[in-house]
């Protein structure tokens, strides 16, 4: 037994010695898990809360593993174009952050494994060879080390509240009404296109990935309304049969793939074109030929004036005024009117620079244009024929003929927020203006700016708040007397032209647009009611006027109204009747005045008061003047009279005076 004990002690000593030397211990086969990947694994991340393991490497694929099932990954994320260098799981935000060796950052949804966001090196401005990366959860930022250290702040969009009805999961770029089929077509930043029934608000169809992983930026219809044209950040235009989601044509630009900002479909003397503008600063015209069966189309040669005298900055908007006028606007505030038949420039308009203080003085971009077509068709020289938005929330009216010039400019927005959409009725009688605070303003422009420059704004008929965030598009459906609005708050709403709330596309209860009883009116969307910016603005906060000045203004207004009313009454009496005599006035007073007995104390008070009949007549003719409301100068109170009854003191003084006189 003693020998066995010595052998055990020697064995324990040897194990302790090996542990002290730091020699590696081989794990038992039942105490390890092996995850086999065919190519090299360069990075991994483990989340204990969700019990997930991520691996990434040379094959550019992010694999999601269950630690207890090493044989096959439970999910695979394929989007990187270079080897994966960094992985991080944020359990609190339910996000996966990944970065590849080409300095591309991607954000994934942990639950459904969708790619939510991609930051390319050009957008994030990360240059150089990637050496290290770390996610800082407390400030929600990604720290990247290359030739320099970059800090990327990742802003997470809040999830919609349970009671909030949304039309899309992503911010809505624009929506249009198709009068041929009675449909509403909307597109979002997630490259999702949805088709809705206008009369009921029901979702009819949707198709995703219209431009791959890139966002959609604009859409329009052809003249027949049977085809849908969309533009995206990939620099391409696509023509769709939107009823079945089939892509018919793809319109490409050059090899740079510059973003398309706006597009429109035009007809010029039976020739049909699709016009696109964007970051390439050129007007790209695609001839729509029904006999061209090629899937890819190239643009027509550029106009000579477009190459030599065209825009010097990114083009943001393009609109057409039949038959031959085309207007484009750019980021630097320049507006160019083109003759589509000759390709020459008709005139150039420059947005005025704001004179007063601005938070962003360099922002002179013009992102929306609208023709007043009835005026432009008559070539009225002095009348305003074009409306544009401008800096600091301004709306500008332009005259285009016989010396193009600015005719009128005003700011409709309450907070000087930038105008994001403008639409006018068919007869150019009414204009609907929307801003980035979600407000919609209605103006009567029937006779506005017809005879030259105007200093005052047009008459504001009505305004209401349609969304809690920026309105991206407005669409008038005049035949049904309805207004369509979309916003970056992921919501599309339908209103009457008077601002009555009909409903939200995507809500559970369907409406009948022809039956007002099925509308939501007089209800208002819940998120608008609880938003602080929906509160009415008081005159003190809206203008630089003090409260004392407003009180005086209101008092003066009341005094003027009373004096004018009295003047009208007296003038009417003078006109209708002759002035009454003194005897008639005395008789009327004696007949109407009630006979009241005076109290004994009142009789004594009057009998004891000495009557002074020698007052000067000037005291009876003194005029009353208003005294300025100035606070009196404070005086030190008399502490000696504290505790005394002032009524008794005054009464004793009067009694002593009366007895002394007697």
Automatic annotation (TrEMBL):
Keywords: Repeat, WD repeat. It comes from the Eukaryota. Pfam families: WD40. The keyword S-adenosyl-L-methionine does not apply. WD repeats lie at residues 41-66, 77-118, 165-206, 216-250, 308-340, 464-498. The keyword Transport does not apply. This is WD repeat-containing protein 49-like. It comes from Phascolarctos cinereus.
């Amino acid at each position: 037994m003693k020998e066995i004990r010595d052998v055990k002690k020697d064995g324990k000593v040897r194990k302790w010695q090996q542990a002290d030397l730091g020699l590696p211990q081989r794990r038992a086969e039942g105490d390890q898990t092996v995850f086999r990947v065919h190519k090299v694994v360069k990075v991994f991340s483990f989340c204990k809360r969700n019990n997930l393991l991520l691996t990434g490497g040379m094959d550019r694929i992010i694999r999601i593993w269950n630690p207890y099932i090493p044989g096959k990954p439970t999910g695979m994320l394929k989007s990187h174009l270079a080897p994966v260098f960094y992985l991080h799981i944020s359990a609190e935000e339910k996000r996966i952050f990944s970065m590849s060796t080409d300095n591309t950052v991607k954000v994934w949804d942990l639950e459904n494994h969708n790619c939510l966001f991609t930051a390319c090196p050009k957008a994030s401005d990360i240059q150089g060879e990637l050496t290290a990366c770390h996610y800082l959860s407390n400030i929600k930022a990604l720290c990247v080390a290359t030739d320099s250290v970059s800090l990327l702040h990742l802003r997470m969009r809040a999830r919609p509240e349970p009671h909030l009805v949304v039309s899309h999961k992503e911010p809505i770029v624009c929506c249009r009404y198709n009068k041929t089929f009675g449909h509403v077509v909307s597109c979002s930043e997630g490259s999702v296109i949805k088709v809705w029934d206008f009369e009921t608000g029901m979702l009819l169809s949707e198709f995703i990935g219209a431009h791959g992983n890139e966002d959609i930026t604009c859409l329009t219809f052809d003249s027949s309304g049977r085809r849908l044209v969309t533009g995206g950040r990939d620099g391409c235009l696509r023509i769709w049969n939107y009823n079945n989601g089939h892509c018919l044509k793809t319109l490409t630009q050059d090899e740079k793939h510059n973003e398309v900002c706006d597009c429109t479909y035009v007809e010029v003397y039976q020739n049909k074109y699709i016009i696109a503008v964007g970051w390439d600063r050129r007007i790209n015209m695609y001839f729509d030929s029904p006999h061209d069966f090629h899937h890819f189309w190239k643009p027509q040669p550029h106009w000579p004036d477009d190459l030599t005298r065209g825009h010097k900055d990114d083009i943001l908007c393009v609109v057409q005024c039949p038959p031959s006028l085309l207007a484009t606007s750019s980021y630097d505030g320049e507006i160019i009117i083109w003759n589509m038949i000759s390709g020459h420039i008709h005139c150039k308009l420059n947005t005025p620079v704001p004179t007063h203080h601005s938070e962003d003085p360099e922002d002179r971009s013009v992102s929306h244009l609208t023709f007043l077509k009835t005026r432009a068709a008559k070539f009225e020289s002095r009348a305003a024929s074009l409306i544009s938005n401008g800096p600091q929330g301004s709306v500008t009216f332009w005259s285009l003929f016989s010396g193009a010039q600015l005719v009128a400019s005003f700011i409709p927005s309450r907070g000087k927020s930038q105008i994001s959409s403008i639409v006018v009725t068919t007869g150019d009688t009414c204009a609907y203006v929307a801003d980035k605070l979600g407000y919609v303003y209605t103006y009567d422009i029937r006779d506005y700016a017809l005879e030259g420059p105007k200093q005052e704004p047009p008459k504001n008929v009505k305004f209401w708040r349609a969304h809690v965030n920026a309105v991206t598009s407005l669409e008038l459906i005049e035949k049904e007397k309805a207004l369509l609005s979309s916003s970056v708050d992921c919501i599309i709403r339908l209103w009457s032209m008077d601002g009555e709330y009909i409903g939200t596309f995507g809500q559970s209860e369907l409406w009948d647009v022809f039956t007002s009883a099925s509308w939501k009116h007089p209800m208002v969307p819940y998120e608008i009611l609880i938003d602080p910016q929906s509160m009415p603005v008081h005159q003190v906060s809206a203008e630089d006027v003090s409260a004392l000045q407003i009180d005086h203004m209101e008092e003066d207004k009341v005094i003027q109204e009373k004096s004018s009313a009295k003047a009208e009454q007296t003038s009417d009496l003078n006109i209708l009747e002759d002035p009454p005599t003194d005897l008639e006035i005395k008789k009327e007073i004696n007949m109407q005045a009630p006979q009241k007995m005076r109290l004994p104390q009142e009789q004594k008070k009057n009998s004891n008061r000495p009557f002074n009949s020698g007052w000067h007549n000037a005291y009876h003719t003194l005029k009353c003047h208003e005294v300025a409301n100035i606070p009196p100068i404070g005086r030190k109170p008399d502490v000696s009279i504290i505790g005394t009854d002032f009524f008794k003191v005054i009464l004793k003084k009067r009694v002593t005076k009366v007895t002394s006189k007697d």
